[in-house]
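[job 0412] stage=fold_complex status=start
inputs:
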Amino acid sequence: MLRPHKAGAAVQKIVTLKEVTLITPTASMDATVHGGRAKCLQRLVCLEMPVPTTVAISFQAVHGIATGRMPNVSAILSHFGEAPLVSVRPSSQDPDWGGPGAILNIGMNDARFDAMCETMGEAAAAAVYMRFIQCYAEHVARLDPESFHMPDTPSGETLHAFLATYEAETDEEFPQDPQEQLAEVLRSMARTWEGTTARLLRQAKGAPADAGLGLVVQAMALGVGAGECGAGVVQFVDATTGAPSLIGRYQSQAQGRDALHDNKRAIYLTKDKRGAALEDICPDAFAELIRIGGLARKHLREEMQIEFTIQNGKLHILDGVRVQRSSRAVVRVAVDLANDGVIPREEAVMRVPPSALSEMLHRQVDPRASRDLIVRGIAASPGAATGRIVFSSNEAQASAARGEACILVRRETTPEDIRGMHAANGVLTMRGGVTSHAAVIGRGLGLPCVVGASDLEINAKKHAIITPDGRSFVEGDVITVDGTTGDILAGEPAMLEAALDEWFRTLLTWAEEFCDIGIRANADTPADAQTARNFDAQGIGLCRTEHMFFEGDRLGVMREMIFADDADDRREVLERLLPMQRSDFVELFKIMQGLPVCIRLFDPPLHEFLPSDKAGMRDLAEGLDLHLSEVMARVAALEEYNPMLGMRGVRLGISVPEIYDMQARAIFEATVVASRKGDPVAPEVMIPLVSAVREVELVKTRIDAVAAAVKAETGVDFSYRLGVMVETPRAALRAEDIAQHAAFMSFGTNDLTQMTYGLSRDDAGRFMSSYVRQGVYAEDPFHTLDVEGVGELLSIGAERGRKGNENIVLSICGEHGGSRAAIAFCRARGFDYVSCSPFRVPVARLSAAQLAISKPETI
Ligand code: PEP
Ligand code: MG
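[job 0412] stage=fold_complex status=done
writing structure:
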């Protein structure tokens, strides 16, 4: 006996025993009542694995404990014999939501120590007791862990010192009654779970605010004592790649996960040239462990990490949790399980969150890397890139020419920056939201992009950005854009490479089998189209033709067209643009091999093609042989207060019809050329920004005339379909009339969101985060389709459109097109397809397949 002690005084209010359940094969056990760990342990018990006696305490009971209602602890301990020695572990509904750490060796006291000294020696007994005191002191009594540092060689003397420290710091003796010890452990775990920090942490992992915590109380299989005793952890796949691999460590005379933390004493599991292995020292237990691993995979239908102990050569299985894994491993494990017949393909498809594919498609900052955050903006295009800061497109191009990675930093980008974006590795803007120019182009190019970093100051003169904490980064400094999270980081953190491996492809092939809505891509260039094809897009749903005018020497011709004095002059310049557009379309048609290609006629206001600074205007004046004043006057004349609501889209098409005439001719001539060489092409021509049926009639008449002319000139017949973009509220409301003149209606939810909210998509970034934080908007409506408001217009438009034309093809081509919420919405209303950035095609296909498999009724 070490010393006399006061009688234990566990004060308990009794609650019903149903809240506490002994885990047996037939016990009623549910992850939503007792947590995932309890349910998993029951499965292991059902498989007749050597699991020590375990009792599950339900969410309700644990919540009761936090509020002062302690269950009958004596009844709990009655399952564990005369002198109970137990552990307590958390059991939240989803193991990923975490919970307080495990506490082992509850029940250790002076008397037990004396008895254990007899059987296993003083050092081992002291180690077990001291470990409990250490854990209890830190997590239950909330003492400073520094005061309880574990010595290398525990002994009766060091144990005395621990007990004395405990007493000195609490003015109480260390509790000796196992009931009191257990009650205090349960109380402390229950309260920790209800605390603010734990709640915020689990909410960040997707748990609801009121997520429950269960607890499991389990008989200790000590891992310490005579014969071969120890503890280890094993899993059967690599957590990063998902490849089959036996990974783990074992440590003699150890407990819990010690083997993972003590590099000196831990040994390998399988025979290994580098040193001793469990397979050598305890072959029977090792063989049993391997057998159990296979059994768990097959019957739990999951890759599990198993915690085990060996007691005098006998194996005990203490716990099994899903192997934590990277996105790449999530995909490989799901596909391998399905290929091995452990789960059906549908389930493999359901198991992969679409965000995992998005991560695999792009380089990512390694989650283990340290992050020096400069500023947080809006995550506009996923993936991460590191490079030197440049402030203009010219510098970006020069940097690319030198072979140096760069990040293009702009207040906002305009179409003029496209060449700079092509050259840059990532883009950062101070203004804009998820549908701003930088965001749309970034996603199209698969270029990591963060927009709306409005807390950054940009000092154009000094070529520097100033961070909210006063740091300054100048041109040439290295930064990292994390377009997945919206973070801008200083320097170059470690990265994980994109991984489009065979498992990724297999999963997508399976997803395609289940998918019941078309997935097309928004693709403007041959490179975009090729990406779309590589991801098996079923066509192009939106080709924004204006982007073609910024390529190479076309901008100059485009500007000449803008400066033309009259329609004849304009037509003459457009004739020079015609072959360029035609070759663009031939190229697109070739790549898409007969799949539908929907080409949107010119949409942006013309001023976007003109320089905005004096130097640019002087260059232009020189190029066009004009006076600077003439250029300035034309730029001023084209300037609009609100270009989003001004002379753009079909309004421009009707006011300056030569542009659409040229584009229609280019499309039809390309159709003839491409169909001669390859699969027959039936192009789709789409009119943007429609708000009145007369607009459609006028444009349709001219387009039909051009088609007839091209047919007559070439002697080749072809078919084409003319449709409209529904992106003004009026077009949705008048869809019945409009649909009578259209073969298809594609909802442009970027503009439609902008106009429904009366909210400029380029300026929304300034206040969006504050609006979302304060709950004014549940989400950024440019990012997540506003099902209530914009969605109602979509429903009205679809319903009225069908009334006007029962064969109308319906789709959505705004940036929402790739999101699960928008796909669910479109499926529920029988839309034919969604169209999204090429890099989102796989993500959209997986979301659509999951929705088809789970068949939600309606939205
Ligand atoms: C839209 O408005 O939803 C759309 C796809 O067109 P853009 O983004 O080019 O305006
Ligand atoms: Mg639009």
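[job 0412] summary: Residues 727, 748, 750-751 surround magnesium ion (ligand 2) (CB under 6 Å).
[job 0412] exit 0
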